Amino acid sequence: MPETDCQTVQVKLADRSYQIGIGPDLLANIDQFIDRTGQWVVITDQTVDSLYGERFCDSLSSSDNDVHRLVVADGEHSKSIEVVDRLWQEMIQIGIDRRATVIALGGGVVGDLAGFVAATYLRGLDLVQIPTSLLAQVDSSVGGKVGVNLPQGKNLVGAFWQPQQVIIDTQVLQTLDARQFHAGMAEVIKYAVILSNDFFDWLGENALAIEKRQPHSLQEMIARCCQFKADVVAEDERETTGQRAILNYGHTLGHAIEAVCGYGKFLHGEAIAIGMDFAIRLACQLGRVSDVEIERQRKLLTAFALPIDVPDVEPEKLIEAMYRDKKTTDTKLNFILPDRIGNVDLIRDVDVSTIEALLTRE
Amino acid sequence: MPETDCQTVQVKLADRSYQIGIGPDLLANIDQFIDRTGQWVVITDQTVDSLYGERFCDSLSSSDNDVHRLVVADGEHSKSIEVVDRLWQEMIQIGIDRRATVIALGGGVVGDLAGFVAATYLRGLDLVQIPTSLLAQVDSSVGGKVGVNLPQGKNLVGAFWQPQQVIIDTQVLQTLDARQFHAGMAEVIKYAVILSNDFFDWLGENALAIEKRQPHSLQEMIARCCQFKADVVAEDERETTGQRAILNYGHTLGHAIEAVCGYGKFLHGEAIAIGMDFAIRLACQLGRVSDVEIERQRKLLTAFALPIDVPDVEPEKLIEAMYRDKKTTDTKLNFILPDRIGNVDLIRDVDVSTIEALLTRE
Q1: Through-space distance between the first and last CA atoms of chain B, rounded to whole angstroms
Q2: Sheet with A38-45, edge to edge strand ranges
Q3: Which residues of A touch B124 (CB under 8 A)?
Q4: How many CB pairs under 8 A join A and B?
Q5: Which end of chain B has fewer surrounding CB within 10 Å, N or C?
């Protein structure tokens, strides 16, 4: 990979190790960043396709590269087994063989969907993730979680399927709408709270530059997030030791809000922001942190226009949804809770009445 | 695992290593062979369920074991994404969580189907293979290949998903119908031709005892086949080095016969028997083996009532189907061909006119 203006982060997973390249205008020079030739299946959605699809495929196409573009509808509904089935069959019709590489060009939905297609077509194809939303760049494109939804819930079917390469073009964030950009910032702030007080302070100091999407700030921020994620994933690739579970900070209530309010009312990052504010208040209630930390986190979340108030729904419904969430085992409610900005622990079997009291809006 | 009357074979795959237990009446004493507790999902088909389902689940059930039985229709049609989708949704309804174990209780179809469900439900559950057909016992239950068919062809979707344990009860073969038993013998003979002249001779000497399904002969035979498969899989888990490809001896034409004649006319093992006879004749034509080897293999195949004659269809159709087979890359026809009983090589780019001449029935 050329070094100019491009930072790299290594994801160390023995024979499944790979590199993340982060820089501006990587898409426009994609031929320099892709180090293989052959059959390519570019899976993308309508919005990303209209912005980058044709140009991207043209710059990848060559006498050595046979490029096929498959476009799905925008939105969470495309993360279904019906769409996966359609893509499998289209790939068979085209004649895609087992040496082909799938490129996921898009946000989190496209990454999860295309990743699952890659994991299962002919028992597994190579995968390159090219995330185009901030959320996908800092979170979902790294670490190998791929999958689709069932009618009963999100991400109930999937695999751990590591990409061979992740290519992050920071320039594409310039076209991302503000709400999506802010939702991505929720996951950025999450890394700071769970892993690094230094990074938390850095985000505060650079909030204005980030909000203005100043290229160098974005690149620095994304590279640091990818490094955090890479370190956690390297320690617990398949979420078996508990280490990877810290990435679920804010997600216990966040997933419940998404489920109860209907997917679409809140973006994932927005629900996570509310979940993080709730989690740190719960941590305060349990004597783990002081009010000062609640305020510090709130200030950073609201600096990026993120919501923090629990929506006006019955607390019982949220609690019920938390029990159903697959991250909760047995009949106990577990939370990832900070004891300071920069460190969290898994707290098991939190008293439901404490949760209910905190969920009840004053 | 108790030692009495039970042989074990190790499949060495680093952190995915596992043990195969082979012996009589293991199903009836399943509680002695399963060394874990928790939620269990037993996936089986109607025939196996009527013979063993209830008794098996009863003997597995205990205060520590919560056992759920999911039954699919007999036959290849169950190896579809529609059936997988139904099983995923049933498991969600039951409340199966990520610590559960899937048991595949049945022949090759059940093993492939249940294995794919295990590989993908909540990004992967533990799997125990309990194969009940000879073909599944000596071949498909070992090595981690799981998957389903698409309308366009067999096994086009799937994963490599190693079981935690394989439990082979030789007693269940007593109820297997003769045609299915003989079809399984085709894969047994395949191991001998590709890997061991000694085992080939042993099969000839013990043909009568095997045909009578004498328990000790069956156990010895199955254990040796599992050891062969385990060795090949340990060298090339994901079919990337070419070593695992030798297991496809007889399969290039075999798959084409299945595709052209329609699945159901020939059992998989029968098609493979015809494919092996063809492959050794092709090897002879190319000067790799003498007529003597053709006759030796024929004698053993026909001792188990296996067909050897290419069915009366147009050679062009078979050749076309061979090109379509996913094991063939590029536009060349590759064959696994012996140079003696006990050794094979991958021969690339075999001249099509030679194949066509051999396929044309005299």
Answers
A1: 54
A2: A7-11, A18-23, A165-169, A126-131, A101-106, A38-45, A65-72
A3: 159-160, 238
A4: 79
A5: C
Whether A45 and A71 have beta carbons less than 8 Å apart is answered as yes
Q: How confident is the model over B274-300, as pLDDT tens digits?
A: 999 999 999 999 999 999 999 999 999
The residues of B that are catalytic are 123, 145, 187, 229, 239, 244, 248, 251, 255, 268
Residue the block writes with tokens 């935690």: B164
Using a CB cutoff of 8 Å and minimum separation of 24, what contacts does A58-67 make?
A: A59/A27, A59/A28, A59/A29, A59/A30, A59/A31, A60/A30, A60/A31, A60/A34, A62/A31, A62/A37, A64/A37, A64/A38, A65/A37, A65/A38, A65/A40, A66/A38, A66/A39, A66/A40, A67/A40, A67/A42
User: Residue B153 is encoded by which pair of tokens?
Assistant: 């062809």
Least CA distance to B149: which residue of chain A? A122
A102 with A75: CB under 8 angstroms?
no
- Residue A8: how many other CB atoms lie within 10 Å: 14
Query: Residue A221 and residue A72: Cα distance in Å, rounded?
Result: 30
Q: If you search the block for the tokens 């059930």, which residue do you land on?
A: B61
The domain ranges of chain B are 7-174, 178-360
What Å distances lie between residue A110 and A73, A84, A292, CA to CA?
A: 10, 11, 39
Nearest to B326 among A89, A119, A122 (CB): A122
On the CB side of A172, CA atoms within 13 Å amount to: 29
Q: What percent of chain A has pLDDT over 90?
A: 83
Alpha-carbon B169 to chain mean position: 15
Correct CATH for A7-174 of 3.40.50.1970, 1.10.630.10, 3.50.50.60, 3.40.640.10: 3.40.50.1970
Give the sign of the dihedral formed by CA A57, CA A132, CA A167, CA A117.
negative
pLDDT tens-digit series, residues A270-328: 999 999 999 999 999 999 999 999 999 999 999 999 999 999 999 999 999 888 775 44
Per-residue pLDDT at A1: 47
Interhelix angle for A215-235 vs A178-195, to 10°?
50
Q: Which of B81, B122, B159 sits opposite A156 (nearest CB)?
A: B122
Four-residue CA torsion sign, B286, B288, B291, B293: negative
- A97 touching chain B per CB within 8 A: yes
Q: Which amino acid is at B144?
A: G
Write the pLDDT tens digit of every residue in B311-360: 999 999 999 998 877 544 556 788 999 999 999 999 988 999 999 999 98
| Token pair for B66 | 């919560």
Q: Are B237 and B142 within 8 A, CB to CB?
A: no
3-state secondary structure of A113: helix
CA–CA separation, B131 and B147 (whole Å): 16
Residue B33 and residue B1 in contact, taking contact as beta carbons nearer than 8 Å: yes
Q: Which of B119, B151, B326 sits opposite A98 (nearest CB)?
A: B326
Phi, psi of A21, rounded to the nearest 5 degrees: -105, 130
List, in sequence order, the alpha helices (H) in chain B. 30-33, 46-48, 54-60, 81-94, 108-120, 134-135, 178-195, 197-205, 207-211, 215-235, 251-261, 268-285, 291-303, 315-324, 352-359
Of residues A83, A85, A121, the one with CA closest to residue B147: A121
- How many whole angstroms separate alpha carbon B115 and alpha carbon B104? 7
All residues of chain A having their beta carbon less than 8 Å from the beta carbon of residue B122 are 156-158, 326
Quick one: B25 exposed, middle or buried, by C-beta within 10 A (0-12, 13-18, 19+)? middle
Superfamily designation of domain B178-360 = Dehydroquinate synthase-like - alpha domain (1.20.1090.10)
Strand ranges for B125-197 from DSSP E = 126-131, 145-150, 153-160, 165-169
Inter-chain residue contact A157 with B120, CB threshold 8 Å: yes
Predicted ipTM of the assembly = 0.93
Largest CA distance in chain B: 66
